[in-house]
Amino acid sequence: MGKKQPEWLEQALFYEIYPQSFMDTNGDGIGDFQGIIEKLDYILELGCNAIWMNPCFASPFMDAGYDISDYYMAAPRYGTNDDLKRLFEEVHKRNMHILLDLVPGHTSSEHQWFQESMKAEKNEYTDRYVWTDTVWTEPKGMGCLRGISDRDGSCVVNFFSHQPALNYGFYQPEEVWQQSMEDEGPLATIEELKNIMRFWLSLGCDGFRVDMAGSLVKNDVEGKGTIRLWQNIRGFLDQEFPDAAMVSEWGEPDKSLQGGFHMDFLLHFGPSHYNDLFRCDEPYFSSRGKGDATAFVKKYIENYEKSEKKGLICIPSGNHDMLRLTHFIKGDELRVAFAFLLSMPGAPFIYYGDEIGMHYIEGLTSLEGGYERTGSRTPMQWNHKVNAGFSTAPADRLYLPIDSAADYPDAESQMADPDSLRNEIKNLIAFRKKNPALQNCSEIEFLQSGYPLVYKRSCETQSMLVIINPAGKACTVDLPEKAAILYTIGGNAGIQDGKCQVDGTTAVFIEI
Ligand code: GLC
Ligand code: CA
Q1: Confidence check: pLDDT of 130 > 70
Q2: Angle of helix 81-93 versus helix 184-203 axis, rounded to 10
Q3: Nearest ligand to residue 319 Cα
Q4: Residue 1: per-residue pLDDT
Q5: Whole-prediction pTM value?
Q6: Which ligand is the nearest neighbour of the Cα of 399?
Q7: Which residue's alpha carbon is at the smallest distance from atom 2 of ligand 1?
Q8: Ligand 1 atom 4: the closest Cα is on which residue?
Q9: Residues 143-169 pLDDT 10s
Q10: Residue 443: how many CB atoms within 10 A of its CB?
Q11: Protein residue closest via CA to atom 9 of ligand 1
Q12: Which of 320, 267, 262 lies closest to 54, judged by CA?
């Protein structure tokens, strides 16, 4: 990997905030920076010490802010740049860290750069995006936007059709209109990206979660060009901001870590088999016990070996792009899933509201390009007062409606109840912090991958056996001679004759 990671990442536990839905303090029905500031102590109390905040920049919000119209300006609905700076300061006062969401692959079609780029006359932004030579030329294998510019050409898009792709060049240009990575346009785009990063890092953010990090260079099947591009950025960071943390939405840690990222996400799409565990007809974590974790484990080990056994593959509880966990598993199943999530290597990421088991809300009309993701983006449920304590706006002015279930889960009641999911997660986090074998950079070795899943976590000073038994059926696991149960979740577990007897839907941590 080559790159030394900022020290704070070794102990980092992240909480993902979707700013729209976290906490509204000015009564307009939309979350804001001040709301996040007011809830920092809540996050800290849970045990998380780092935050990833979804895009909070000026945007027409046709993709929840992943369609940026000004990289240098906070979205006015959340506050000003000064408010955002104050958020950074409040985070740091608490010894916490915060990552902003960097969207380097595309902008909103409303961005001024794109408006300029669409003009027929050549200008500074002509080559800021990937354009074909005539409007009748469709880029092969890529979506495009066309027929809306005076300029004669089609513009490649990166995601939705209102998100034109920024131009970082083609790894191996094949058509006349395809520029190389060394052409002037692509080089200027990289310099602008550095300016954006410089701007926010100077204002006090601690690094970035990078959106679609593997998508930048086109026709780059093996990712070699994109790796080279990120190495260029890494050089800049090493010189100017060596403590900035970088997490990629890439899902191929061998590539992203080579590119100088410190951590990569396990994604819910592509080859990770993440969904086998949590989100499919028979998830591994269901007590039905019909799931299968073997493909996941195989792929995980492959990536772990490729990343030189650096535990930097981050497994999220969920995020703004997937259905909430509770749509698939419930009760003790959830607790056992968190025992897994909070005992794997890499920095854990908890999606806001997952710690109280917020529901996926069905049947909502798509908002801000959410489509089926919309049901996972509803306001945080702080209590059982008006609008669940999220906002003082009239209910029909809220960003999205509050869960209509009368017994919706809320933070306040769960904090008061020692047996709540939130307190289980809080205890698990404290347990992880107390036991070095379970932390971000300690090693993992899988011993069994059916039911139960058994793995050994270890570092120089400690070894821990983790038994994860989601199935509703008890199981028995052979133990080494010296073994002591430290923590059990779900049902019970006991040691007898060198074996551990574990109840159904139970997880157990054993020091060995
Ligand atoms: C990432 C984001 C997602 C967004 C897409 C386009 O996958 O997580 O929310 O829609 O990129 O930027
Ligand atoms: Ca607000």
Answers
A1: yes
A2: 60
A3: 1
A4: 42
A5: 0.98
A6: 2
A7: 211
A8: 66
A9: 999 999 999 999 999 999 999 999 999
A10: 15
A11: 321
A12: 320
pLDDT of residue 114 exceeding 60, the answer is yes
Ligand 2 centroid to Cα of residue 20, in Å, is 8
Looking only at the bridges linking them, the beta strands covering 97-102 and 207-210 are parallel
Which is the closest atom of ligand 1 to the Cα of 320?
A: 9
**Torsion angles phi and psi, residue 201, rounded to 5:** -65, -35
Instruction: Copy the structure tokens of residue 312.
Output: 């930097």
Among all bound ligands, the one having the nearest atom to the CA of 27 is 2
Residues 111, 103: Cα–Cα separation, whole Å:
13
How much distance in Å is there from the Cα of 228 to the middle of ligand 2?
41
Q: Which residue has the tokens 């974590």?
A: 285
* Bridge-based pairing state of the strands 57-58 and 70-74: antiparallel
Would you state the structure tokens that stand for residue 84, as one six-digit string?
Answer: 């955002």
Q: Examine residue 452 and say whether the peptide bond preceding it is cis (omega within 30 degrees of 0).
A: yes
**Residue type at position 460:** E
Distance, in Å, from the CA atom of 87 to the CA atom of 205, rounded to the nearest integer, reads 9
- For residues 227 and 261, what is the distance between their CA atoms, to the nearest angstrom? 10
How does pLDDT run across 470-506, given as a tens digit for each residue? 999 999 999 999 999 999 999 999 999 999 999 999 9
Ligand 1 site residues (CB inside 6 A) read 63, 66, 103, 159, 211-212, 249, 320-321
Give the other-Cβ count within 10 Å of 510's Cβ.
Answer: 24
Phi, psi of 178, rounded to the nearest 5 degrees: -85, 120
CB atoms within 10 A of CB 228: 15
DSSP 164: B
pLDDT at 2: 46
Specify the ligand 1 atom closest to the Cα of 105: 12
- Residue with the smallest CA separation from ligand 1 atom 3 is 321
Tell me the CA–centroid distance for residue 385 and ligand 1, in Å. 33
Q: Give the Å distance between the CA of 245 and the centre of ligand 1.
A: 20
The number of the ligand nearest the C-alpha atom of 397 reads 2
Beta-sheet pairing, 349-351 with 313-314: unpaired
Sign of CA dihedral 393, 397, 400, 402: positive
What is the CA(247)–ligand 1 centre distance, in A? 14
Q: Which residue has the tokens 């060049």?
A: 169
Which residue, judged by its Cα, is nearest atom 12 of ligand 1? 66
Within 8 A by CB and 6+ apart from 122, the residues are none
Q: Which residue has the tokens 């003009």?
A: 119
| Phi, psi of 263, deg, nearest 5 | -145, 155
Checking if the pLDDT of 104 tops 80, the result is yes
CA 195, 201, 207, 212: dihedral to nearest 10 degrees?
-20
24 Cα–ligand 2 center, Å: 4
Amino acid 123 reads N
Of ligand 1's listed atoms, the one at least distance from the Cα of 319 is 8
Give 29-41 as a DSSP string: SS--HHHHHHTHH
Phi-psi region of 463 (alpha: psi -120 to 50; beta: other; left: phi over 0): beta
Q: 318 C-alpha vs ligand 2 centroid, how far in Å?
A: 24
- For residue 330, which amino acid is it? K
